[in-house]
Amino acid sequence: MCRIFANQEPVLQGKIHQMQSSLDMLHVRRRQLNEMRNAIPGKSQITYLDEQYYYASPRCSIDKTGSYNEVWETFYEDCVSRHVSQGYPVCYVIGTESLASGNVNTAKSIAFHVEDPSLLNLRTPGGMYATGYYPVPHASSREYDAMLKMIEQSQYHVAGDSIEEIICDEVYTKNTDDFMIRISIPVQS
């Protein structure tokens, strides 16, 4: 009888990792939805954000407005094999070079929040960020231009890559008026 259970140990460990991954994702979602509740859509501000952990895809060039493709498939399979929560919110990493050129529809990687620091391969340090919530499915140059203007008017400058998080989309609501993203751009004075 003990041998039967011993053979099941790897399967059970895998299930435990899956459940922990799901719990981590739900914890992140709850925190983000609470933050969104206090946000004013369309208004950006300079604020302090705590350190955040992410698991990101290898550097790539992916059109945020495009559909599921091989980059997504490879990243998803990698997340499953590492027991990384592959649910929402999806994050796009927009590089400083794309911010500077205005090419904000192309992300340099895809990422998911992780709670377990042993899973991270991308960390945003605690510090000052320009943040904004926008009622759109994906940020366009209009949202980024408004944020970059606010950063300049506040006498700050961009200090790193932008993280664009999909907070609420067609997975959560059929009403496109309820779609919401958050953009976070690290800044320095």
Summary tags:
9-stranded antiparallel β-sheet; 36% helix; 11 strands; two-stranded antiparallel sheet; 189 residues; single chain; alpha+beta; Multidrug-efflux Transporter 1 Regulator Bmrr, Chain A
Please, could you describe this protein's structure?
- With 189 residues, the chain is of the alpha+beta class.
- It has a single domain, classed as Multidrug-efflux Transporter 1 Regulator Bmrr, Chain A (Alpha-Beta Barrel), CATH 3.20.80.10.
- It is 36% helix and 29% strand.
- The protein is built from four helices and eleven strands; from the N terminus they run H-E-E-E-H-E-H-E-E-E-E-H-E-E-E.
- The strands form two sheets. Strands 1, 2, 4, 6, 7, 8, 9, 10 and 11 form a nine-stranded antiparallel beta sheet that branches. Strands 3-5 form a two-stranded antiparallel ribbon.
- It is elongated, with a radius of gyration of 18 Å.
- The model has no long low-confidence stretch (mean pLDDT 82).
